[in-house]
């Protein structure tokens, strides 16, 4: 069963003093392309997160977002009294020298100056990180379930398109005998207009056979049918089949193009156009297959 590259997963980790929300989104991409938006305190774990997501998701444009909502905030920044006193002395001296009075609310002014607030380094405990890892795994499980569901729908669509091409291939057969007879009749009519020319019937038959063999499409039909069977077989093999299906679709396209180049008959050419239309829709859908 194939999987889609499109998916979404969300999970929440509850801690005594904070609520952490994990969101993971994925879209189609040729490679694994990860974008991470997490608080700075978790930056040291970014490589661990990358490896975890790569192991589970393999391919796709993936966005990981970690939002933290504080329930009870522990104060991690403190006022540096030495800095405040230094600013106050300097401002007082400057005010006296300029002959101006200090503002009434001078404390709020001082608190807005650089380096007054001293930030204490926040660390991630092992317990907190384990809760985050568990939430990420839950979000991944939900996203993979979404991918699986989308993959089932994609498989139905692709199978329907392949069967449509198979039906069109079967519709080619009635035109083959008619085409051969028309070619023979047209050649004989053209030769009948020649006057005073003696024809070697044996040589004519040999050349006729050679010409009709060049227009024969049985090999193309056989190869195309084989590629269609292989495509359906690959759909059922496993999850990571997107690139392989793309290669098979290219081979299907080659056989359809060759069939079209030999189809010097309007009915067959219309069928080939319809095959190409179905194949283009297949290629568009394959872009989203993992």
From TrEMBL:
Record protein name field: TIGR00255-like family protein
Keywords: Endonuclease, Hydrolase, Nuclease
NCBIfam families: YicC/YloC family endoribonuclease (TIGR00255)
Domain of life: Bacteria
Claim: Nucleus is one of the keywords in the record: no
Domain Endoribonuclease YicC-like C-terminal: 175-289
PANTHER family cross-referenced by the UniProt entry: UPF0701 PROTEIN YICC (PTHR30636)
Cofactor list: a divalent metal cation
Top-level taxonomy: Bacteria, Pseudomonadati, Bacteroidota, Bacteroidia, Bacteroidales
Residue span(s) of domain Endoribonuclease YicC-like N-terminal: 2-155
Assigned protein family: Belongs to the YicC/YloC family.
One Pfam family per UniProt: YicC-like_N
